[in-house]
Design brief:
5 helices, about 40% helix, about 35% strand, alpha+beta, single chain
Length: about 150
């Protein structure tokens, strides 16, 4: 996982952000203990004006714990950069809503994730998604200020 994250950061660094930015953004959080900037590449969905990112490790993920400590974040998606406020969502119903959007947009990839990572059918029922949402989390990135590149 760490090697894949290094590759994503490298692709952005060498100018391929507009290409990889179709599916991967770079989220910069402030370390809850160190106070240092931490950059995490994440898959995302743009819904309305906001960016939604899933947390595979739920609220145990370091980047989620950093957000809980300091919700002000920086985001780079493609050629765009913005500052924003991150909202950690643990509500099972809202989690199911988010996964339903992802399943609609990426049925094959998300179907595999449901099956392999969670032991669910590739097309889970709403009740199954809400049950999964009792132990999972996602984050909504609300842009507040865009930067000029």
């Amino acid at each position: 996982m760490k090697n894949i994250q290094k590759i994503h950061r490298l692709l952005y660094a060498i100018g391929l952000g507009p290409l990889i930015g179709r599916i991967i953004l770079l989220l910069t959080t402030t370390g809850r203990k160190s106070g240092m900037k931490r950059v995490t590449p994440l898959q995302y969905e743009k819904i309305g004006e906001d960016y939604y990112v899933g947390a595979a490790r739920g609220i145990k993920a370091d980047w989620v714990r950093n957000i809980q400590s300091c919700p002000q974040v920086e985001v780079r998606v493609g050629a765009k950069q913005f500052q924003g406020v991150a909202e950690v969502v643990t509500d099972p119903s809202r989690f199911a809503d988010f996964v339903e959007v992802r399943l609609q947009r990426h049925p094959f990839m998300l179907g595999l994730i449901m099956e392999k990572a969670h032991g669910l059918p590739r097309h889970p029922r709403r009740e199954q998604l809400e049950e999964l949402g009792r132990t999972e989390a996602f984050v909504i990135l609300h842009p507040t200020k865009f930067s000029e590149n």
